[in-house]
Write a structure and sequence with these properties.
The protein is of the alpha+beta class. It folds into 2 domains: 136 residues, no CATH class; 62 residues, no CATH class. Helices cover 27% and strands 16% of the residues. The strands form 2 sheets. The chain has a 5-stranded antiparallel sheet with strand order 3-4-2-1-5, with helices on both faces. It has a two-stranded antiparallel sheet with strand order 6-7. β6 and β7 form a beta hairpin. The chain is globular. The model has no long low-confidence stretch (mean pLDDT 95). Bound molecules: iron/sulfur cluster (SF4) (2 copies). One iron/sulfur cluster binds next to α5.
Length: 222
C-alpha cells in the first residue's frame, strides 16, 4: 500500500490531504447538520500540468480526469468510500476547505482566495469520502501569506466592469452585466485575472484558461 506522499508524487495532483471529517470546521460544510463521512481524501491541482493530462476529446475533461485519478489514488491507499466531488451536490465549501488546509489564503479583489505560490492557478479537483478513521496528513506547498497585501492591484484597472475592488471585494453583478453583452472583451478569459501577477510561473495554458472561463454561462442566471 502506498503512503499518501508516494501516491501524491505519482499522481496528477499537487496537493493532497487525509482529514478526519470532524477536524473540518462547520464553515467548510454547506449543511453543518448533515451526515458526514468519517474522513476525507482531499485533492487539489496547481499550475498547468493537470490540464496537460486531460483528454480534451471528452466533454468535461477536468472533472473526468479528476474523478479517475482520485479513485485510482483511493484504491492505491486501500481507502474504502465514495467520491463527493466532482459532483453538483458536493456538501463542502471547497474554498473554505482549501483555506482551512492552508493551500490558499486571504480574500482577493477577484473574489477568490489566492495561493502565495500559485496565485489563482490552484483549484480543488476531487474529494473522496472515506468510511474509516484516518490520521491527519497534509501535503503540498502551503500559501504563506495574503498575496494581495503588497500588490498595486492591476486586477482592478484591468476589469471593464469595475467588478474587483479592494474595499468591497468582487461585484459579481457588475461582471455578469459585461459578460452578457455581445462582443464583450471577456469572452475568452477574465482580463482582471490575467492581469494578476500572482503565481505567474504557474499560469494555466491558454486552452485551460478558455475552458474554465467558457465552461458555463452562470451569469445568465443572475
Ligand atoms: S470577466 Fe471581465 S467583467 Fe468579469 S471580472 Fe473578469 S475582467 Fe471583469
Ligand atoms: S492583482 Fe494583486 S490585488 Fe489583484 S488579485 Fe492579484 S495579487 Fe491580489
Amino acid at each position: 500500500m502506498s503512503t499518501l506522499r508516494q501516491a501524491l508524487a505519482q499522481s496528477v495532483f499537487s496537493h493532497a490531504a487525509l482529514v478526519p471529517s470532524n477536524d473540518l470546521p462547520d464553515i467548510c460544510w454547506l449543511d453543518p447538520a448533515a451526515a458526514r463521512p468519517r474522513s476525507l481524501l482531499i485533492l487539489a491541482a496547481a499550475g498547468p500540468e493537470f490540464w496537460r493530462h486531460c483528454s480534451t476529446a471528452q466533454s468535461d475533461p477536468v472533472d473526468q480526469l479528476a474523478t479517475n485519478a482520485a479513485l485510482a489514488m483511493a484504491e492505491s491507499l486501500s481507502l474504502c468510500g465514495f467520491l463527493l466531488y466532482p459532483a453538483a451536490d458536493a456538501p463542502l465549501d471547497l474554498v473554505a476547505v482549501m483555506r482551512h488546509l492552508g493551500w490558499v489564503s486571504g480574500r482577493s479583489p477577484l473574489g477568490m482566495a489566492l495561493s502565495s505560490e500559485y496565485g489563482s492557478y490552484i483549484a480543488m479537483r476531487a474529494v473522496f469520502g472515506v468510511v474509516e478513521a484516518v490520521e491527519l496528513q497534509v501535503h503540498g506547498v502551503a500559501s504563506s501569506k495574503d498575496t494581495c497585501i503588497d500588490c498595486a492591484a492591476p486586477c482592478v484597472d484591468a476589469c471593464p466592469a469595475g467588478a474587483p475592488s479592494i474595499e468591497r471585494g468582487f461585484d459579481i453583478g457588475a461582471c455578469a452585466s459585461v459578460r452578457r453583452q455581445t462582443n464583450n472583451p471577456c469572452q475568452q478569459a477574465c482580463l482582471a485575472r490575467l492581469a494578476c501577477p500572482a503565481g505567474a510561473p504557474y499560469r494555466y495554458d491558454d486552452a485551460q484558461i478558455v475552458h474554465h472561463h467558457t465552461a458555463s454561462r452562470w451569469f445568465d442566471a443572475l
